[in-house]
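User: Can you predict the 3D structure for this chain?
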Amino acid sequence: MRRLLSFLCLLTASVAAHAESGLWYGVDAVHDFNKRLSMELGIGSRLEDGWSRYTRYDVAGGLDWKALPWLKIGVGYDFIRDYSPEETKVKYKDDDPTQRITGFNVDQSYWRSKHRLFLDITGKLKCGRFTFSLRERYQYTRYAPIDNLEEYKYRYFQEYDDPSEITRPYLPAEMSDGSIRYFELDPERTELENKTAKDKHYLRSRIGIEYNIRHCPLTPFVNYEVANDFGSRLSLVRQRAQAGFDYKVKKGHTLSLAYLYQHGEKEETGDADLHILSVGYKFKF
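Assistant: Here is the predicted structure, written as structure tokens:
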């Protein structure tokens, strides 16, 4: 247990050291109706931006049916609240970053609801103390619309090297040579924007390996997942690699801890490389 606690402290410190780091955690409850049919309910939350901001809450539920000893089929629904931070878009003449800046569009931060349905097919193969798995998931997500979201459209009056010289509102911008310039703004241009509903269809494929250590409550595992967009000819939008372990606290209760690296598209906020500490607790009732 002492070694386990030391490992947890080391893992937490190493993940938190990254600027694009976060903590994903949740609790799942499982009920077996019989040997083939089970139900799972779960709640989760995410801290990102260096563990400084909540970016997601979700509540999910689903059913799993064991069609064969090695094959499981699952369906479920997930209600999600996602956060998008404020975003500043620099406008250039002729949309060329090497040309002069003509203005800025600033979208305010907002929360958005999403409704997600998914269908899983999971196959497992045991080989000695190893278990190999492959999960294919079709995922449909409906993004709820948002009305009267403020969007600020700025034109600038003058640019400066030193922001202390500016008396009006201003924004910094990185130039093509890497230098930072400060732009005095026209604050009178404000518009309201509506974000319409949208749909996304993903295919998420995950392969995994776990190892059953004899007479040990720890079960280490690794997995790798790719997400492909049906709406864009199955183009690759995200990759995730994860390594961790399950710890059997007592019968029917399991604590999971893992390091997750994500490359590609985040849910709402564009591209990012994320370093995540994932913590989960699952129990049967």
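Helices lie at 2-16. The chain is about 5% helix and 70% strand.
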